[in-house]
Specification:
By secondary structure, the chain is an alpha+beta fold. Helices cover about 35% and strands about 25% of the residues. It is built from nine helices and 13 strands. Strands 1, 2, 3, 4, 5, 6, 7, 12 and 13 form a nine-stranded mixed beta sheet that branches.
């Protein structure tokens, strides 16, 4: 009798579970950003707009191709960010801004939403793709954040080829440094057209795993080894499969104070709001209240994307298996 009762109960439970629709596939999605700020149409030529859209599109499609082939969200965000790091248009990698001493000091971070593991590097000067080194920190050390010479010593131990500082030189960034020093003020990245050029990506793969990655050159004319929010887990980068993955760009000190990336995920977990609503509330209210400018890209546990900013524009892109594909500036 007991066996018959348990068998019948199991049958009822199975019947109660919703059946997957024929042809249903898990949502895969990716979003990228390349900086946010006062990006006026009058300050951008048609040629420069095309260049930004081209590189944003390449990064977006490179990351999405990884997902479409069954790759992981971690692989996808790294692939996308590397494209942006290799472009001279954005304040990361090749296009990084100069510090007060005339040196490019790079920061990056990555986080795995499935395991809550994270890796980051700060103040590296000879690493072509800092996001790759951040991933090595996450996967090959017991640590989360390595900085400066120690991070580069680790890179050499891992077989990474370092590049000379001259690799990062661009005339455009050098002129920005000269202008900032003439003004004797700390200037945000790309002060000439008023935006923060940090790059990043968030993604959800076919297994439902989320990841976030962020990379930056920091602030033009920064001093004393200044580090912003990008490599600080919870401030500029965060991922949790149960809630969302976030990558931020903007006035780093304010993103650190408001712990923006974690705050968005925490609101989803604790109050039950959508990730899009949490991003809106944090960027349009909480961050503004303390004087912060910038934006975030967010992907939730279902693959829904949100791209939220409180500035005039944000270089961004979004693509998913539902047919969405777009790159935008304003």
């Amino acid at each position: 009798m007991r066996f018959a009762f348990l068998t019948a109960l199991a049958a009822c439970l199975v019947t109660a579970l919703p059946a997957a629709a024929d042809g249903d596939e898990p949502m895969i999605s990716i979003a990228i950003h390349g900086g946010a700020g006062v990006i006026g149409r009058s300050s951008m030529t048609a040629e420069s707009e095309r260049a930004y859209h081209t590189d944003l599109g390449r990064a977006l499609d490179t990351g999405y191709d990884v997902l479409e082939k069954g790759g992981s969200s971690l692989d996808a965000v790294v692939a996308a960010v590397k494209i942006l790091e290799d472009s001279p248009l954005f304040n990361a990698g090749k296009g990084a801004v100069f510090s007060h001493a005339g040196i490019n000091e790079l920061d990056a971070a990555i986080m795995d939403g499935a395991t809550q593991k994270a890796g980051a590097v700060a103040g590296v000067r000879h690493v072509k793709n800092p996001i790759e080194l951040a991933r090595m920190v996450m996967e090959r050390t017991p640590h989360v954040l390595l900085a400066g010479e120690g991070a580069e010593e680790f890179a050499l131990e891992q077989g990474m080829t370092l590049v000379p500082g001259s690799y990062f030189f661009t005339e455009r960034r050098w002129k920005q440094l000269e202008e900032a020093q003439k003004a004797e003020q700390m200037a945000s990245a790309d002060e000439d057209i008023g935006y923060f050029g940090t790059v990043g990506a968030v993604a959800r793969d076919s297994k439902g795993n989320l990841a976030a990655a962020t990379s930056t050159g920091g602030m033009t004319n920064k001093r004393w080894g200044r580090i912003g929010d990008s490599p600080i887990i919870g401030a500029g980068t965060y991922a949790d499969n149960a809630t969302c993955a976030v990558s931020a760009t903007g006035s780093g000190e304010y993103f650190i104070r408001a712990v923006v990336a974690h705050e968005i995920c925490a609101r989803v977990r604790l109050s039950g709001v959508t990730a899009a609503q949490a991003a809106r509330d944090v960027i349009q209210a909480r961050l503004k209240e303390i004087g912060g400018d910038g934006g975030v890209i967010v992907v939730d546990s279902h693959g829904a994307l949100a791209l939220e900013f409180n500035t005039e524009g944000m270089f961004r892109g979004a693509r998913d298996s539902g047919g969405r594909r777009e790159t935008s500036i304003y």
